[in-house]
Amino acid sequence: MPRPVALSLVLALSAAAGLSACAARPNGAPAGAQAPTAPGDPFEATNRRILGFNFKVDDALYRPAAEFYRRAVGPWARRRVRNALDNLNEPRVAANALLQGRPVAAGTSVMRFAVNSTLGLGGLFDLEPVGGPPRQEIDFGQTLYAWGLPDGPYLMLPFAGPFTPRELAGDVGDGFMNPVNWLLPFGANAGRLVARGLDERERNIEALDEIRTNSLDPYARLRSLWRQNRDAELGLATAETPEVLDDPGAADGTGSR
Predict the structure, then answer these.
(1) Which portions of this protein are annotated as coiled-coil regions (predicted)?
(2) How far apart are CA 9 and CA 189, in angstroms?
(3) What confidence tens digit (pLDDT) does each residue in 61-70 have?
(4) Spatial distance between the Cα atoms of 183 and 92, rounded to a whole number of angstroms
(5) What is the DSSP string of 19-85?
(6) Would you say 38 and 223 are in contact if contact means Cβ atoms under 8 Å apart?
(7) Backbone Cα Rg of the chain
(8) What is d(CA 126, CA 122) in angstroms, rounded to the nearest whole number?
(9) pLDDT tens per residue, range 181-213
(10) CB 34 within 8 A of CB 220
(11) Which residue intervals of 58-153 are DSSP H helices?
(12) How far is it, in rounded angstroms, from Cα 67 to Cα 51?
């Protein structure tokens, strides 16, 4: 099933590796300044206004929910939830690998799903650290890129965060492509998507707060981070993308796989 727009905002914020904004600047721009439109962002003025709205939604709903989730669920249990959610995405990864003409990668994801679903107790434990198949990130947006579909302009969607037309089509396509979505009832799918959103937002509380406090232009930084992150996923990056999604509660070792 397609990802709900509320969850899409959380996942897009997380994937961008750190967006937020100063409450005194609801349009995501420096006070008294409007940055010129950058290449690939012809709708910047509208995008900034939508980002301001999305920040208010995050302040009112997503961040408080993520804080409650952190208080109520310990880091070890959060790691188990994350592993199980990742495991349910493996069929989608395998399907996209096949669509990209990568049978070995598809086989790796199928094997990973089988191993983690059985020996890993339904995916609660990721066996990659002890020799299990490695985790891969392959999505339909990458498939469309491999097929030669152009990216399109940068867009900031209400509730749904940053996208381009190609990535939006890929996001929706992934929802229909995963056979797990066909087998689970609507309520189970909805609960899984809410859990994914809570997990992603909880992992980024500190990172988003830091950018909210220190960014002179949160909108421009978000746009840059989102594009850098996506370029890395498409294999276009020239340097390793910084990892800022670590669970702070895992520092004591209780967040291990």
Answers:
(1) none
(2) 17
(3) 999 999 999 9
(4) 13
(5) ----TT-TTSS-TT--PPPPTT-TTHHHHHHHHHHHHHHIIIIIHHHHHHHHHHS-HHHHHHHHHHH
(6) yes
(7) 18
(8) 10
(9) 999 899 999 999 999 999 999 999 998 888 778
(10) no
(11) 63-72, 75-88, 90-99, 103-118, 140-146
(12) 22
Tokens of 98: 């096949």
Q: Which residue has the tokens 């940053």?
A: 162
pTM for the model stands at: 0.77
**Tokens 């967006």, residue?**
19
Residue written as token pair 């349009």:
27
Structure tokens belonging to residue 111? 């094997």
CA-based nearest residue to 1, from 188, 256, 237: 188
Which residue, 120, 9, 104, 124, is CA-closest to 59? 9
Count the neighbouring beta carbons within 10 Å of the beta carbon of residue 41.
20
Token couple for 174: 């992934």
